[in-house]
Each structure stands twice: as C-alpha cells, then as structure tokens.
Amino acid sequence: MARLLRARVADGEAVVPGLDAPRTRWALALLGLLALFALLGPVVWGDPIGQDLSRFLQAPSLAEPLGHDHLGRSVTARLAAATRLSVVLALACVTTALVVGGLTGVLAAWRGGWVDGVLHGLSEAMVALPALLLVLVFAAMADGGLWTLYLGLALAQWVEYFRVVRARAGLVLAGPAVEAADLLRLGAGHVLARHLWPDLRPVLVTMATFGLGTSILALSTLGFVGVGVRPPTPELGLMITEAFPLYDEAPWLSAAPVAVLALLVLGLLGLRPTGARR
Questions:
Q1: Coil, strand or helix: which one is 9?
Q2: What share of the chain in percent tops pLDDT 90?
Q3: Is 52 in contact with 201 (CB distance < 8 Å)?
Q4: Please, which residues have CB within 8 angstroms of residue 50's CB and are 6 or more apart in sequence?
Q5: Residue 54 carries which DSSP code?
Q6: How far are the Cα atoms of 14, 102, 126, 157, 174 from residue 160, in angstroms, in the given order?
Q7: Per-residue model confidence as pLDDT tens digits over 80-108
Q8: Which of 47, 93, 187, 189 has the greatest count of CB atoms below 10 A from its CB?
Q9: What is the pTM of this model?
Q10: Strand (E) positions, 5-110?
Q11: Could you give phi then psi for residue 216, rounded to 5 degrees?
C-alpha cells in the first residue's frame, strides 16, 4: 500500500507525498480530528446561533468544553460550525482555482498561438491587481454572502495555477517523450495521462495544500476586519473579533478559534509533498 501511494521516479520523476511518512500520518490524523469535530460539533452541542442570555460568559464545563459567549451561545458549537464553514469554502475555492487554472494552463501550452496570447494576457492583467485588493472588492460586494466570497477567493488564486501549469506543461509538451507519442499517434489522452498528469500532480498537490491554508487565513482575515461573513454566522476570524473585548473575563473565547486556525494550517503544511521533481 505504501508503495502504491508513493511516487517514485527515477529519471527526473517526481516524488509525491508518502502516506507512510510520520509527518503525513500526523497531518492526516490532525485534519481528520478537526473534520470530525466540524461535522459532529453542531450535532452534539446544538444550535451554533441559539442564544440563552442566562448563560452569559458561562465558564467551560464537561457538557460545554468551551463555555458560552456573551450572548449565551455555545462556543463549542460555534467553533465547530466555523471550522466546517472555513474548510468547505476553502476546498471549493481551491478546487475551482485548480480546475480552471490547470485546464487553461494546459490549453495555452498545448494550443499556443492566439489562445496562449489571450489567456496569458488575461493572467498578466490579473497579476497586476493585488490579490488582497481583489478579494476585498468582492468581499465588499458580498455583504456577507458566501457565493461572492467564494468567487473572489477563487478568482484571486486561479492565476497561480495557470502560470505554473502553463510553464510546466510547455516543457513537457516540447520534450522527446511527447514528440515520440505524437509520431506514434497515441493521442491526446495518452499524453495527458502518461506525461502531463504525472509531471503536474506533485506541483498541484503542493499548491493546493498551500492554497487551502491561504484561503482559510484569507477568510478569517476578512471576518476579523469585518468585511467577511456577517454575524450571527459563526466564522473563525469573526469569533476572534467578537471575543477580543472580553479577553480579560473569558480568554478562552479568543484562544479557541486561534488554536483551530493554527492546527488547520499545521495539518495542511504536513501534507506537503516530501520531494519535488528534479
């Protein structure tokens, strides 16, 4: 099994994450626990937006490990819902950016000519715009809406995939292996499956893990500065902002979302490939 999960290539072949590596196992275990918490949290601890003012800043207990906030809401339920929202939105953004950027990158490298010119020009125009500015513009348009935040984050990331895939695919398509495949009329499917995908896969895995972390941090940053998800929807950055004025009375309110953010990023960094193509 370990052998199947580990890419090895002699001859310049890439190395992809080996799931038997201790670092990867720990990262998967950590992310698995966070995913389990995100899925089961609202089920176990109830409604994340339900208020009960009689429980104002109630201290943590066995039933409520993180207590209640200033509106009497279960912090554990809110933290689980916020974790789920961040992970799902980040996955959607990265998947969209990877698919759009990867396909357009391969198309530009394969077709060349005016197709490459148009797509490359579009990517240059996108690069000229600061990604943070682009996300902030979409966030301002979103007014707390998740769809607009998703579009802004995905749009800010697809260019990275396009530029990397275009450059990498250009080298592979110009190589002798693809030239031989063309002479043998093996078809585009063969080139994609046997030459392009094995070469691009480790690079895309690395970019996707970093992209997930970037998306989660960007979403929490927007929530922290008040232009992301709107209350009462639980979101990690928004929870930190809400808890700051109460830091002296209930420091766990702000420490909990910070800890979840740190664990998410740590787990994603642990999934990085252990090697790269030489």
A1: coil
A2: 28
A3: no
A4: 73, 74
A5: G
A6: 20, 9, 10, 6, 22
A7: 999 999 999 999 999 999 999 999 999 99
A8: 93
A9: 0.82
A10: none
A11: -65, -45
